[in-house]
Amino acid sequence: MSDREQYLSGRKVEPAGIEPRMQVDQLIDSTFLAYNAGKLQKACRLFAERFLEENVTVGLSFAGALTPAGLSGSCLVPLVQHGFVDWIVTTGANLYHDAHYGLGLAIRQGDHKMDDRDLWKKRVVRIYDVLIAFDDLLATDKFLREILAQSEFRREMSTAELHNGIGRYLVERETQLGLENSCLLTAAYRTGVPLYVASPGDSSIALNIAELELRGRGPKIDVSRDVNEAAAIVHGARDNDGKNAILILGGGAPKNFALQTEPQLQDILGFDIKGFEHYIQVTDARPDTGGLSGATPSEAVSWGKVNPELLPDAVQVFCDTTVALPLMTAYAINRREPRPLKRLYDRRETLFETLKSEFLIHQKKIGRP
User: Fold this and answer.
1) What span, in angstroms and rounded, lies between the C-alpha atoms of 87 and 104?
2) What does the pLDDT average to over 33-58?
3) CA distance between the termini of the chain
4) I want to staple 77 with a disulfide (CB 3.0 to 4.6 A). Which of 124, 186, 187, 343 is the partner?
5) Does position 44 have pLDDT exceeding 80, yes or no?
6) Which positions are annotated as active-site residues?
7) Where are the alpha helices (DSSP H) in 184-288?
8) Which tens digits make up the pLDDT trace of 299-323?
9) Quick check: 40 and 28 in contact, CB under 8 A?
């Protein structure tokens, strides 16, 4: 094939017209052909075709106020229920607002042009164009302090243990209220998906834990345990020719926490591996400002976070997550049957001990003290 023929070997941009009752996956495949729509189509296909093979462990990181926008119930809950996401890193704020749904508290549509001075007087808080009654924030705070003061929480724990415990109490509240899988916390508890928070001191959950500490109660978060558990999940995923995939929504600390598992395994612990095999990021951040949220997968290769040999299996979509994630979720659910649940929360102790054992054996071999 000549160079000219190689350039012109791609699919024709010749879509059929949009028809009534067309399925979302059909719409994306037939009309999302160029620019960021084309990238979104590639991301949908990569997610459905490569991420969801049985031997792939799928991590999800998400930042930004996605749960108040309703994306936990519409997208994240179905993804974990279908076995399409195996472990998650997010912000404490996302899980705090997610808990409102499990408590039967309302988040309502508003308008970004509302008078914030009047909202403050009326005790209503605004997240762009969604509104929450301030009293409902206080009700969530009260619920968190009441459960986290229980004796079972009075110890050191990872954030995965913390959120699993909160999820269990929210399941009880769901039953009382006649709800089911109303939020990510309860869905993750039921499916055994561990929920990590990259910056555990940065949220209203943390504020309530800090209040309990002043009274000599509540949990103490072991951040080293978080780092090691996440690395153990990524390490264990490669058993029996398994692979790791990462879906990044937004950026920030959750993105870095998820991706840093690879440099920890390679550079700090000394394992001979090459980074995530599959990578998708949806972001509205620009790469040219140098920030992490817009950093490309090829830049991540230089850190050992993405396998350089599999860079074609890395797609970055420049799009608002609130637009892209429902489309990606619908595409995957239409194209793939549910996967068996990996229940990594239940296995995290074993994965941690395996990582620790293999690390110590490796250290002894290379003579590092």
Assistant:
1) 25
2) 95
3) 56
4) 187
5) yes
6) 305
7) 184-191, 204-214, 223-237, 252-259, 261-263
8) 778 878 788 877 777 899 999 999 9
9) yes
| Residue at 357: amino acid letter | S
Structure tokens at 357: 């054992």
User: What is the biggest distance separating any 2 CA atoms in the chain, rounded to whole angstroms?
Assistant: 75
Bridging pattern class, strands 124-127 and 130-133: antiparallel
Whether 226 and 160 have beta carbons less than 8 Å apart is answered as yes
Strands (E), the chain: 56-62, 87-90, 108-109, 124-127, 130-133, 156-157, 195-197, 220-221, 243-249, 278-283, 314-318
Is 102:186 a contact under the CB 8 Å cutoff?
yes
- What is the pLDDT at residue 273? 86
Tally Cβ neighbours within 10 Å of residue 293.
20
191-219 confidence digits (pLDDT tens): 999 999 999 999 999 999 999 999 999 99
pTM: 0.94
Read off the pLDDT of each residue in 327-346 and give the average, rounded to a whole number. Answer: 98
